């Protein structure tokens, strides 16, 4: 069993829609939870960072962590074509474990 | 603007050649990492360093080696490249303690061994 499982996608949504991305994990010791965005031929860039459980909002992005269910989510409101990218969940401490990524396409 | 730099961005090389992938960061981070990324697959940690003269192997077995002689520099070397080494290699760094906010990644080196 993989340590981190991410919904594989791909997802294609119309502009303005809400995008929902999810990951589950098996290691209850994980304390840091992150979402990275990766454009084609680029390295991942940090999008959201949370410590332990709870919600965090940053503009159109909301990250949720439910440690009791070992489940994390990322929501993108009012999606834009510029949000088209691969989204990676990551978790752990100084050594991160990554999901395989979900490719999202936002259609204009 | 990137504070972590990887060179070269793309490399096509013949089997048996020795290669070094360069990674440098200007943020003064003690911790640095090398990940391998294949299409549709999760990133796999192959090496990490928590400071100068400290290197460890990651979760994915790799024939590559690394060195950390200076804080800002973390090169990865393959003594004899093989087609199975074809992949994208990503370098990252992070702060620690109160300065830890996840990783900053470089743009990656896409290696093709023919």
Description:
The complex is a heterodimer of chains A (108) and B (114). The mean pLDDT of chain A is 93. By secondary structure, chain A is mostly beta strands. Chain A contains no helices and eleven strands. In chain A, strand 4 and strand 5 form a beta hairpin. Chain B has 114 residues and is mainly beta. Helix content of chain B is 0%, strand content 47%. Chain B is built from no helices and eleven strands. In chain B, a hairpin with a 6-residue loop joins strand 4 and strand 5. Chain B is globular and about 45 Å long.
The best one-word shape of chain A is globular
Which residue ranges of chain B are poorly predicted, with pLDDT under 50 across at least 5 consecutive positions? none
Elements of chain B, N to C (H/E): EEEEEEEEEEE
Number of helices of chain B: 0
Mean pLDDT of chain A: 93
Total strands of chain A: 11
Coarse shape of chain B: globular
Element pattern of chain A in H and E: EEEEEEEEEEE
Tell me the radius of gyration of chain A.
13 Å
Q: Write down the overall mean pLDDT of chain B.
A: 93
Tally the helices of chain A. 0
Q: Say how many strands of chain B there are.
A: 11
Structural class of chain A: mainly beta
In whole angstroms, the N-to-C terminal distance of chain A is: 38 Å
List the helices and strands and how they pair.
The complex is a heterodimer of chains A (108) and B (114).
Chain A: E1 4-6, E2 11-14, E3 19-25, E4 32-38, E5 45-51, E6 54-58, E7 61-66, E8 71-76, E9 85-92, E10 96-98, E11 102-107
Parallel strand pairs in A: 2-11
Antiparallel strand pairs in A: 1-3, 3-8, 4-5, 4-9, 6-7, 7-8, 9-10, 9-11
Chain B: E1 4-7, E2 10-13, E3 19-25, E4 31-37, E5 44-51, E6 54-57, E7 65-66, E8 76-78, E9 87-94, E10 104-105, E11 109-113
Parallel strand pairs in B: 2-11
Antiparallel strand pairs in B: 1-3, 3-8, 4-5, 4-9, 5-6, 7-8, 9-10, 9-11
């Amino acid at each position: 069993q993989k340590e981190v499982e991410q919904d594989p996608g791909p997802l294609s949504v119309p502009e303005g829609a809400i995008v929902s991305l999810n990951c589950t994990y098996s290691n209850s010791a994980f304390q840091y939870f992150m979402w990275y965005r990766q454009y084609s031929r680029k390295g991942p860039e940090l999008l959201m960072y949370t410590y332990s459980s709870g919600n965090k909002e940053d503009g159109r992005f909301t990250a949720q962590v439910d440690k009791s269910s070992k489940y994390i989510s990322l929501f993108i409101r009012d999606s834009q074509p510029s949000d088209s990218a691969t989204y990676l969940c990551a978790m752990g401490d100084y050594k991160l474990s990554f999901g395989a990524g979900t490719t999202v396409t936002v259609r204009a | 603007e990137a504070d972590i730099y990887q060179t070269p961005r793309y490399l096509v090389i013949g089997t048996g050649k020795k290669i070094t992938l360069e990674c440098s960061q200007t943020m003064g981070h003690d911790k640095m990492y090398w990940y391998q990324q294949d299409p549709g697959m999760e990133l796999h940690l192959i090496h990490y360093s928590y400071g100068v003269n400290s290197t460890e192997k990651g979760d994915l077995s790799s024939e590559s080696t690394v060195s950390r002689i200076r804080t800002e520099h973390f090169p990865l070397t393959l003594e004899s490249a093989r087609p199975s080494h074809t992949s994208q290699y990503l370098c990252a760094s992070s702060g620690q303690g109160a300065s830890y906010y996840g990783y900053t990644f470089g743009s990656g080196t896409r290696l093709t061994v023919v």
